## 1
Amino acid sequence: MKKLAIVALTFAASLAASDLSGIWNGKGGFEDAKYGAVPSTAQLTLVQAGSTVSGTLKIGNGPVIHISNGSVSGSQITFAAGGGGTAALTANGSQLSGKLTSSTGKILDVVFSKQ
């Protein structure tokens, strides 16, 4: 019984540690065939409830974009952004990295650090 309690507490602690809620500041570059990576910044505000993620995204000086259909599975985070954009990110400690794809197909390779 004692071992079961220890396992349960360890599992609960690992779940609490994996909460991605908060403000994440990102740097990266848009993939461009002519110019290579064009530098850009982004800010991601996440609210996680279990395996569901919601929040907002702002790229550069652009408008705030609402996140929908967000989910977390292990270290993988996916969500829809605005009118057809998507994100596929991987959590690694205090960083999120991956690709944000706009509805027009522009891809931003980005690394976020928690604020």
Note: The first strand starts at residue 22 and ends at 32.
## 2
Amino acid sequence: MKGILTILIFLVFVTSSFDILFNLNLGGFNVRTCYLAAFAFIFVYAGQFKDASRFRFVGIGSFVIWFLFVTAFVWNTQFLTRNIGYLAWLCFNMFACYAIYKYGQLKSAQELIRLYVLSFFVMALVGIAQFMLSAVGIHILITMWWKINKIPRVNALSYEPSYYATYLLIGFVFLYYSQRKGIWYFKQRMQILILSCVAIAIFLSTSRMGILFMVVILLYDFAKMMIRALFTWRISRVNFFMALVFIGAMATVVGRILLDDKQRKLYLAGTGLESTASHSKDTRIRQMNNVFLVFQDSPLVGYSLGGIAPAIAHYYGDKTKDQKKAKEYEGLNIFLEVLAASGIVGFLFFCSWLFQLFRANIKLSGMLRLNGYVRESGILEALRYALIAEFLILVLSQNILRPYLWILIGVTNALYYRFKDQLNQVPSAQS
């Protein structure tokens, strides 16, 4: 039975980025494969174990109050069905967090992390295979191109390349900082291969934000490493070599783009730089401004998570009760969206929950390190960095309900309590 639960939790992980395949469509809403796997996990678990009602979640009090605000405002919309659907979406994310927590209590932290890391490896390989097949004229599920039917922008099973890169960034940051701390979940060569494949897949997506985040992380960390080496005269050869290889590879790719006028202008298209069109930048600014405008219209009573797009449509004099049409008015910036959805008071509880999530992680990480659990401390730090990177990149894309964000939160939550229990057992073990 534990083998079935392992398969189901792996499906939760590996299908979290699936947007265009293997999803169940109900009334215009996609019930994603990762949620179906989570429901199956909960059903099987509840039938086998008596502790199914026990669930711990960091900052649960603030989270529940925020959830109640979002629920209370579900009626403040011209498109009620969409609001109910988005509220169900938030609940589905919590079911996924529950399933991950239960698996984290049932199995070791190492097993949970290995499954999580392998899911990024599998999806990175899917993207790389997608690119290689296109090179021989086999185009599978590609949504965007550099050159039509010749050079694809890799998206694997996500809506578009930027979604794919946003998902993979979690794996890149987590693995990179784990490796920097000398934490290995597999043999070194295997883990370096996984990290390399994830980085290559992000490159092949050609997502500007995804690549920019990788470059900034690597350059910042490399600079810290070199400064530390100057003062201590000590440096990890593995870390130095890995950082140097990644930075060298990126410098080569970026250099070739910068030196080729045609490629440079193609890549800068939408930014407004070098006299290129600024449609991408302008669209993002307009979308963020739209969210802030509807928030100003109703700062205390929010629109709930699904009501923002209809509220923007109403602001422009358009009445919409169609899911496809509502997407034309989607907002941008997850924090602005939560503000508009929850109202000022509800937003404060959301911020309180986030604060507690990070504070708990930092506090336990420090306590673990002081008590000799250096590996566990490093894992929590790597997860924290991945969360920070994901929240930052989501400011400029998508929304707060993306499954892979909540699965990362679920993994962070599960390992927090796993390590906390481990730390609390120390005194009893010594007595």
Note: The first strand starts at residue 24 and ends at 26.
## 3
Amino acid sequence: MKKRTKIIIICILTIIALGLIIALFVSSSGTLQISNEENQAIYEKNIIDPDRIVYRNQNGQYYQFAKDTDGYNQIRDSIKNVLVIYSESGNTLTQEEIDNIHEKSFIEFDYETASKNYLIPLEEIEEPEMIKLGTTGGIVVSTNVGHLKEMKKIAEEQSKNETPYTLEYKEMISRNPIQTMEYKYLQQFKEINYKIHQVKIQDMETYELYKAMCNLAFDEEINEEIFENNDLILTVSLVPKIDVKVSIGNIQYTYDRLDNAVMQYTAHLLVVSKIVNTDCIYNTDLTEIDAKVDLEEFESKFDEQVENLDTEIFVTDFDSFYQEYQSATGEITQEQAEEVAEKAFKEAERVVGSYDKQTQECTETQIKPNGFFTRKYNEGEQMAQYTVEVYAFTRKDEMMCGVTVYIDKKLGKVVGAEAFGD
């Protein structure tokens, strides 16, 4: 009887234990399902599905998974399920730090144009992270990306039947200089600016067309075999110094001056792996940037000189000048006006340059005062609605280009000027 009772108790305890295990399993499954849904919501709120996913293994081989393929879907979904935080206020990484990550194993979300790439290092690190790449470095948007080993296993499994690529690239400069480029040929390129034109070439037939157009001649032969794993970027540029940096998500060209460079086109050819996103090319023309900086500095200095004009000599307020002019009864001599004109010609140098005093002539006439000296760099023409009598002093060069400055005959003030010629 005791034995039977003991057996019944054991059975009851076993049933209770099984019940508890089942309840715990159901509870944990429900929690896991809720957790996955929350993680997916974080992903969908902050991240756009990439145009492709790129995987680099530890051997330096690159694989790409296109949208709607098993590799793409499995890797994306695994990230969806483990992304528990997302914030764009995380640590900022330098370009050097990003370059170091790119030298190891990683997964990268790549976009053709619209968005910045996301990078997930796969090496063993203390805090697995997701990085949103920028122009110069990146921002850590998540430091709690789990299941890296699982992701890596998926990437390894899915890449077995994919074509491996390397990130090798080669730059070539054509031996034949291009003195001029016909407009009809330049139209076959994408115009970066009037000095730089660029085109992507993906087959031998197209290359032969551009070879004939630009009289290309390289030290290494371009043949059909090159196009199996590479694309070509041909750039013809009047800026001969060209630096190129290649990464998975983009190609960055930088152009700069060369001292004593001859003004002719340089034909630059980049042979780059198909794994690189050649639809995303950044061109930075430092000569344009330098010119803009120089112009801004010139404008600032020009406007500062206008603000500091000597109002005892130069008329800056047409209305108050005219009141004073009408009430004046005296008249200055031509010799007195010439002294003022000398200062006017000196000031005119900032606008039209200098002209030889030996060519100076003087006439007497009537003009409407204008803002030749008083208008700032980006301001339009200014002119009074009345006329005054002036001494007009003119200087010119051999090409009949020059400038005339106007000195009013009553007060001896500079009331404007006029440039002429080409």
Note: The longest strand covers residues 388-396.
